[in-house]
Amino acid sequence: MSQAAEALTAQVAKLPPEERMEVVERILDSLDQPDAALDALWAKEADDRLAAYRRGEIKAVALSDVIAKYQVNTPRA
User: Fold this and answer.
1) Rounded to whole angstroms, how far apart are CA atoms 69 and 47?
2) Higher pLDDT among residues 76 and 13, named by residue
3) Residue 51, by phi and psi: left (phi above 0), alpha (psi -120 to 50) or beta?
4) Which residues have CB under 8 Å from 12's CB, separation 6+?
5) Which residues are within 8 A (CB) of 76 and not within 5 positions of it... i.e. 6 or more apart?
6) Backbone angles phi, psi at 75, to 5 degrees
7) Does position 13 have pLDDT exceeding 90, yes or no?
């Protein structure tokens, strides 16, 4: 971490919790910027997956099966 970042971190650490949270939220908001190149890659991936499904190369999975797979301590059928 740079010296500037270290100094800023030390300053923020002195703030009350509510203000520190506001700083965190603003930093996160600043990172959430649209990325046309990334959006295009995801669109291509989705198109490729749909085409593979239509060609019979991949199968669909029921939403309930996907949810059950990731639920903690839930027995699967």
Assistant:
1) 25
2) 13
3) alpha
4) 20, 23
5) 68, 69
6) -65, 140
7) yes
